[in-house]
Amino acid sequence: MKNEDFTTTILIEATGQEVFDAVNNVRGWWSENIDGDTDKLNSEFNYHYQDVHRAKMRITEFVPNKKVVWHVLDNYFKFTEDEREWIDTNVIFEISEKDGKAQLQFTHEGLVPDYECYNVCHDAWTHYIQDSLKNLILTGKGSPTPKSTEETASPEKHDSTPQMTTKSICHRLLIEAPVEKVYEAITTQKGLAAWWTPETTAKPETGSISRFSFGPDYYKEMKIEELKPYSSVKWLCIKAYEEWVGTTLTFELEPHRKGSTLYFHHDGWAAYTPEFAGCSYDWALFFRSLKFYCETGKGFPYPDFNK
């Protein structure tokens, strides 16, 4: 019988000890929102991501440099019909060494395609193991979900209701990729260049200025006003066509059982003008590009976005 449990493997130039230590530094690669010990046999720890996902784990196997197993004692998903998927499954890390390299085989035993959460969990685990944990081992720095503050734990939606004197462009779409991947696509230079314009200069830092060129004679500059990892991003337009300057662009993300929901609003337009109408259409095409990039790895950035 075919084993359908989710599994992924990394092979890297490291020792078994280095991999083992990184695996047990769960706050360094998965999430900073963890309470309890993550490096002791029989200890229990709690994980949470906003009001979307909570889980309680017990470490049932702990073999130095060889194997770690977490048993899922409790679980809650906001976005699935069965909120308790994952309960009584096992998260397994198996480590081996050969020819100066270490192999980590990650298996979520019980996470199978029949689960409603399978697609989003498949992509999220792939991100955390193949990118975050791997980078933690190799560079000492992973990309875990940041520590929630009171504000980000129960975020209030932006008031996107346009003022009486201004107009807004709004788009909403389902992207079949986890919020971690979409957030990376709308905040990093590599991601933005892959779906909006290749001539992008950007870094995910609040207060920084991102520059987007569209041909030799036109560019836009955006000030990064807000970054809430895996939740929301807000820009202020400081250079562009006159009608753009002073407008704000907000990307809000929410996990969905098939991936992520992106709600975008471009606020502060003075009037319904031809530029407003054309911009709304172009954003729709660029979000098609973003969706394809996140789902397939290939977008349709400028100048190919309307082909």
Secondary structure elements and pairings:
Blueprint: E1 6-12, H1 16-24, H2 26-29, E2 34-35, E3 44-49, E4 53-63, E5 67-77, E6 90-98, E7 101-109, H3 118-139, H4 150-153, E8 167-175, H5 179-187, H6 189-195, E9 200-201, E10 209-213, E11 219-228, E12 232-239, E13 248-256, E14 259-269, H7 274-296
Helix pairs in contact: 5-6
Salient structural properties:
307 residues; alpha+beta; Alpha-D-Glucose-1,6-Bisphosphate, Chain A, domain 4; 2 domains; seven-stranded antiparallel sheet; 25% helix
Description:
Residues 150-163 have low confidence and may be disordered. With 307 residues, this protein is of the alpha+beta class. It contains seven helices and 14 strands. The termini are far apart. The strands form two sheets. It has a seven-stranded antiparallel β-sheet, covered by helices on one side. A seven-stranded antiparallel β-sheet has the order 8-14-13-12-11-10-9. A hairpin with a 5-residue loop joins strand 10 (209-213) and strand 11 (219-228). It folds into two domains: 6-139, START domain (Alpha-D-Glucose-1,6-Bisphosphate, Chain A, domain 4, 2-Layer Sandwich), CATH 3.30.530.20; 158-296, Alpha-D-Glucose-1,6-Bisphosphate, Chain A, domain 4 (2-Layer Sandwich), CATH 3.30.530.20. The chain has helices at residues 16-24, 26-29, 118-139, 150-153, 179-187, 189-195, 274-296; strands at 6-12, 34-35, 44-49, 53-63, 67-77, 90-98, 101-109, 167-175, 200-201, 209-213, 219-228, 232-239, 248-256, 259-269. It is 25% helix and 36% strand.
